[in-house]
Each structure stands twice: as C-alpha cells, then as structure tokens.
Amino acid sequence: MITHLNNRSLIKVSGEDSEAFLQSQLSNDIKQIQHDKEIQINAYCQHQGKIIAVLWVFIKKGNYYLSITNELKELVLTKLNMFKLMSKVNIEDFSERVYQYGLINEINKNSLKITDNLSLLTSRKSLPACKPNSYWEIACVNERLPEVYINISEKFIPQALNLDINQIGVSFTKGCYPGQEVVARMHYLGKPKRRLFRFASQFEVSIGDSLNVKDSKSLKSSGQVIRIAKNDTEFQFLGVFEVEHINDNIFLNNDQTKLVYLIHE
Hints:
By secondary structure, the chain is of the alpha+beta class. It folds into two domains: about 1-140, Alpha-Beta Plaits; about 150-260, Beta Barrel (Elongation Factor Tu (Ef-tu), domain 3). The protein has four helices and 15 strands. The strands form three sheets. It has a six-stranded antiparallel beta barrel. A five-stranded antiparallel β-sheet has the order 3-4-5-2-6, covered by helices on one side. A hairpin with a 5-residue loop joins β3 (about 40-45) and β4.
C-alpha cells in the first residue's frame, strides 16, 4: 500500500561539512546511515535534552535529507541555520521539489526502510492512486513509531519516546549534541519514569490530550497523547505514560467517564 505523506516536509543538507554538522546536532550516529537504503530516526533536542522534533534522516547522492512533520519545518530550519555558523553547509527547504510516500508492507527497490513494515519513497513526480495519509497513521501507531508536533515539542526526552531502546533513535557512543549530557545521564544513572505505550479509546482523542490516573502523584498529568489514528470503530494512539501506573485505570483529560485501554502485544 502506498500513501501520500503530504503532511511531511523535506530539508536538504549538503556541503563538505554536512556530515560533521549533523553529527553535532542530532541524537543518532549519522556516520552509520546506509546510503540509499534506510531511514535513520533522530531526535533534535534542545539543551535540556527535550525533543524539539523527530527527524527521518537519509542520504541520496551524497546529500543528507531530513524528513519532518510540516508544522515543525520552520522551527528546525531556523535552529539549523543558527548553529551552522562558519560550517561549509547548505541548508535548503526541499519540500516543493520532492513528493514523499509511505509504503506499508510493500517492497520497492527505491524505497528507504524505516521499520520492517514501513518505508519511505521519494519522487520528483506525483504518483497516482495513493491511499490517504490516515492509513499511514494507523500503520505508524501499530509500529509504535513516535512523532512530535508543535504542541508537544520540547516536552519529552528521547527515552520517553522509546528512542533509546536498541538505540533506534539515540547513539550513546557518538559524542556530543545539544542535550546529550542529560540524555546520557538518564541512560547510565537513571531509569525513565515515562515510556511510550499504545492505547485505544472509544472517545475522540487529540494530540496533546492528557492521560490521568486517580492515584498519580505527578505535578502534571500522568501522560500525554502524542500520535493518533482512527479506524472504523475506535481511536488508537501512542501516549507517553508513567510506567508505575500503566496497569491502573487511565482516563482521558481527567474525565473518569472516558476510560482508555492499554493495547498489549
């Protein structure tokens, strides 16, 4: 199945210092990307280790491309340009030049692997007969593929989105990047209080909605919705939630008439 990812933008990073520049900015080891074969998931963090945006990074013809949700494109462009200083790097908004398509359980020789079941295909030409983006969102929720949107930007460290598990989105050996000390300290000395889980609800859910349990001692909500998809009968969504309370009754926006359910594997 091919879906048109018209909610995603594309940033091109080129120039002789592009690898070193991105290595100093993003959470994963840029040097480990397999050219023309795969997507590498990265967190772009601020100095406190909170994620500004989740980026899909890939290489084509020696240039780096960052695929990102539309609503965070301008923020990321501004920050990248602010930090490039004297580096020999060109940063361009490539969104209007390339179409992005999500492939679900489909093999294409030109696509770039994201997970075992999902891949990204880029094309200069529009492809016909694509499924709407909603199919992609359902697949991403099923795969527990996290996303960050403007209203949850700078709220979570990478561990809260499970990006540290198997180092899928964070390298602990690559060296410095913004927020690296905070992220590394949690990895080596701490234990995340919140993790990413998959939930279902019979009630309408929005990104940024709170998830609450009656006995949580958190100053804020016990968790928050970060990605949603709707099928025929219910909403399914990804939420960052307190590990300690994951088996308790969980309510949407502190409304005890709106119970949500943890989806077990």
